[in-house]
Amino acid sequence: MTLRYVLYSIGYILSFIVHAQQPNFVIHNTQSKKMGISISYIGENDTLLENIAHIIAKDMSYSNQFFTKVHALSHAPKQVRDITDLCKQGYQFAIIINHSSRKRDIEYRVYDTTMGHMIKQASGKYIKQKTKPIGWAHHIAQKIWPVLTGQPSMFTSKIAYSKEVGFRHGIPITYICIADYDGSGEQIWVSTPTVNIAPRWGIDPTHIQLFYSEQNPTKTRLMHIDGKKHKRIIQGAHDESGALHFVIAPDGKSAAYCASRGEGSYQIYVCKNGMRKNISNNDGNNVSISFSADSKTLYFTSDYNSNQPKICAYDLETETIRRITPYGYCTCPSAHPMLNQLLYLKMVNGIMQLFIYDKTSNTHRQLTYDEGTKDECCWSPCGNYILYQWRLGRQSTIKVMNSITGEHKAITPPDVRCSYPAWSNCFLTYPIS
Q1: Which of 83, 160, 329, 370 meets the CB 3.0–4.6 Å disulfide criterion with 116?
Q2: Residue range 108-122, pLDDT digits in tens
Q3: What is the DSSP letter of 62?
């Protein structure tokens, strides 16, 4: 294996980096009681706007902070009373969508129904893209949500996971699927008839970048697939017997992956400043990597010098490693996208449960207590949800947990075995045409 192949791969991947902007306005805080949103579209026979309104309604009610109802209007409201009457019906906010005069845009206006005033920060125009209208709706909801709640949103993000579809010579065949943030709109993205596992998203907010491991009888190789389903081998890991978990730091300046050269253990390689370095360099198994939000720390799982795996942290500046979890069987670290928190899994009474480590207070907190082993957890891009694999017997389902309310939802069917969930950043444009 030559270094130039590694550098070419990293350079190819990092060439797409663009940084998303954060919302600037907040006018309402999260409420403990559900609030109502009336969502109206102008044009009683306009099925396109009707569909968009229903998708916005689904997005706005996903967290259970709001209840929504969709209405059809023959014309735009003409008086303030048309808006304030909605308050008497139990709606604190109103969203009205309409085509612009030239049909190129979708206008959306958000109102505070108590006074009948338009909320300018949450209102605007969405320029129609050459993508599916569901993407238009998600982007409108993405703009409105942070203004009404003071929280970032994740409606334009995607999830990926492995899905078992059958067997070949006694070996399960798994495809890589992608779906919207709530599990809807599933699409098979990798359908090679072999074992395709451990998808990881790139950081480009305009194009699909998906990295995964493809297993064959002799090796496990790292692969990259884009939005047009063009696949290529990650050349830097081509000669290793096993390679997985390719991740790029949020700032795009470094990347890392796990690999084995047939010696019986997995090592972690960091590519930074034109160099590739084995940062674990021990006789243990070092896997399951995650960069911190500031790109300065790489978290991973290692069983080196221990009979149980532990969570470790590698400082990219000082090049030192320290253990985060000194006790217990701990795996699968996932750094919070904004806070000083680390999500991970720990075995409790023989069952893997979700835990959070708060780096500021140096404390650990258990999140789940139910039956069923949890595997492969990660944060949503907004930091309010946790995606994880839930296993009990033969059942293997992808679930999402609201980290604020503790509510859990299954987003894949119970009769389909799914694993290795991964959550993307929010996309600036809907990545699927």
Answers
A1: 83
A2: 999 999 999 999 999
A3: T
